[in-house]
Amino acid sequence: MALPVLHLNEIPNEGLSLSCDVHADDLALGPEDVRIPGGLAMSVNAVKAGTTVHVTGTLSGTARRQCVRCLKEYDDALWLPIVGEYQQDADLKSKPAGRESSERPGEDEGTDDEGYVYTGEEIELADMLREHVILAEPMQPLCHEDCRGLCPVCGQDLNVRRCECREEQIQSPFAVLKQLRETVKGQAKRTTKMK
Ligand SMILES: [Zn+2]
Ligand SMILES: [Zn+2]
Predict the structure, then answer these.
(1) Residue 173 exposure: Cα atoms within 13 Å on the Cβ side
(2) Nearest ligand, CA of residue 140?
(3) What pTM, to 2 d.p., does this model score?
(4) Phi/psi at 106 (nearest 5 deg)?
(5) Parallel, antiparallel, or unpaired for β 73-88 and 115-118?
(6) Which residues surround ligand 1, an ion (CB under 5 A)?
(7) What number of other Cβ atoms are within 10 A of residue 26's Cβ?
(8) Ligand nearest to the CA of 152
(9) CA 100 to CA 47: how far, in whole Å?
């Protein structure tokens, strides 16, 4: 089922409530953006003031993620507050020297906090909802805040049990880098000698 489209003249003065299920496809979200196998539940309220429409509500569901430390897949509950303000494009054009023409001319439209533009009478929610989902994605997903991750030596999941590797073998990334640099230097010397 496609995402419903709001029509300006179908929004009564007291506002319009809308609830439906939203699938990743409806929001053009691919598995590289977020995995939501069960889809999301959308519940929004649209209120209009002239031709400006304020949309508020929530998106909720379950995202499947992979922990960056232990690489295990886990389910993450999503509950995203939704806020969007839609302005009719005809309205924006008639305004003399709006903020988007005077300042920051290089920026794309839609990067203004919660501002979105609609054409004619139809307000499409997909782009706005998509942005909310993408912005809420964690940069470093963790199955638990204190996930111990994998042993860098033997690959044992340290959440399950500790391994036999000695502590000193577990090096910091900086130590590894230093060692690598010394190895490369040594190789370079050897190559020079051979000439
Ligand atoms: Zn983990
Ligand atoms: Zn180990």
Answers:
(1) 0
(2) 1
(3) 0.72
(4) -80, -10
(5) parallel
(6) 67, 69-70, 143, 147
(7) 20
(8) 2
(9) 24
